Amino acid sequence: xxxxxxxxxxxxxxxxxxxxxxxxxxxxxxxVVLDVPGWPGHHAGQHVDVRLTADDGYTATRTYSxxxxxxxxxxxxxxxxxxxxxxxxxxxxxxxxxDELEVRGPIGGWFRWDEQMPEPVLLVxxxxxxxxxxAMVRHRxxxxxxxxxxxxxxxxxxxxxxxxxxxxxxxxxxxGLRVDRLYTRGGLPDDAREPGRLRPQDLPAVDAFPAxxxxxxCGPSGFVEAAGGILIDQGHDSxxxxxxxxxxxx
Amino acid sequence: MDIVTRGFVGRRSGGDPxxxxxxxxxxxxxxxxxxPTPVVRREDWTLRVExxxxxxxxxxxADLHRLPVEDVRTDIHCVTxxxxxxxxxxxxxxxxxxxxxxxxxxxxxxxxxHAHGGYTTNLPLADLRGGRAWIxxxxxxxxxxxxxxxxxxxxVPHLYxxxxxxxxxxxxxxxxxxxxxxxxxxxxxxxxxxREQRYVGD
Lengths: 250, 202
Ligand SMILES: Cc1cc2nc3c(=O)[nH]c(=O)nc-3n(C[C@H](O)[C@H](O)[C@H](O)COP(=O)(O)OP(=O)(O)OC[C@H]3O[C@@H](n4cnc5c(N)ncnc54)[C@H](O)[C@@H]3O)c2cc1C
Known about the structure:
The structure holds 2 protein chains of 2 kinds.
Chain A: E1 14-24, E2 29-35, E3 47-53, E4 59-65, E5 74-80, H1 88-93, E6 100-107, E7 121-126, H2 130-143, E8 149-155, H3 164-173, E9 177-183, E10 214-220, H4 221-233, E11 241-246
Chain B: E1 24-25, E2 46-50, E3 56-60, H1 61-65, E4 70-77, E5 82-93, H2 94-101, E6 110-115, E7 120-124, E8 134-139, E9 142-143, E10 153-155, E11 168-174, H3 181-184
Parallel strand pairs in B: 1-5, 2-11
Antiparallel strand pairs in B: 2-3, 4-5, 5-8, 6-7, 6-11, 8-9, 8-10
Bound molecules: flavin-adenine dinucleotide.
């Protein structure tokens, strides 16, 4: 595939964003709803750059996936607290209605899904890596797409599951959507699975689908490494696996 | 823009002049890649150099290790905002690799770098020459780990790190620039961290 560059493209603008609402999803993860006049919308799975500006003009920028289904003028983020961090503590602990910041994007042309893609979809989330995958699940429900979706979501404990009620409801009301949760540290008393890190039997093999799925894996680097290895052993084609990694190489 | 984010102070990591604008200091080594880490064994690793005229030369792992190796101490900058200072690498100067492959560079202005797994990235040939780019096989005194591009990756530390293709498998010389994988997906065609060339149009 070749693409020719014609006239120099314009830089993506920064958009002024206003916090419209915010709530805790878990004890350390918070959803922040941003009102962004002029925002063109995005594709499910893409991310934005978020820039915070102190009163003396100092700025810090970090990248966050969009959690919401594509929509013009509005964005929802979900941020996991990194205790010693610079930007996430403000978003998780400080942001409140009316606060202003800037966003730029949408960014990421590879880790994205839209309803034109005919294949079944396997989503593999580790911790806050569920955020861009949730945008895909939400978008699928919103547009009434029928491709089979299977989300495997690994969290430390049930208390660490983000979007827990919404996922429960969606899995019951959206035909073709399956959600499996697994816990690394401690699960529910009646869980059949022993808590622990991702194991081969946690991920469906390629022939568990009516056709080979597109696979999206998102989470901490170690999780993505482990999942990628298992998926390939389960017969998934490496070219069908798209990855995104958050945070350090733990 | 006249924006102030109420209640935001920031960490201000001392303003080290080695950190480009919009970047922050990272001590860990985060990983960025579009797909799963490919398993490339040293015995299977090759680097194919292709000239504008279609001529080509192939270096094996052993061929690469017959070339002079250099120790490189450098700062690296990822487009996702982290910078890491004083990292140490061992590798072979790309200039020496081009010479060993026996492929002429006449007529070439750019290079499309290929990697196992299908990833590509483009950059001007000049940026691979003059002792500014290496085929790196060691990081911090140990063999390069697979998730960081082992057995061998390109190292072009003066550009954002996605240009330093992991699992490098080929250098295709071009008479005309052509966008690589991320460059077709909205990332900048050159990627100078000091000019914050992150995305198309920056
Ligand atoms: C494409 C992309 C999408 C992302 N999407 C999201 C998202 O949807 N939600 C989200 O919460 N984050 C997301 N991140 C991570 C986010 O960009 C920041 O890295 C994170 O919020 C930490 O920023 P900070 O300023 O609070 O900490 P920093 O000041 O950047 O980091 C402080 C220290 O904490 C360490 N650290 C950084 N991240 C983590 C972590 N996750 N766990 C433990 N230690 C860490 C670092 O090594 C660093 O040394 C995404 C990152 C990328 C690259």
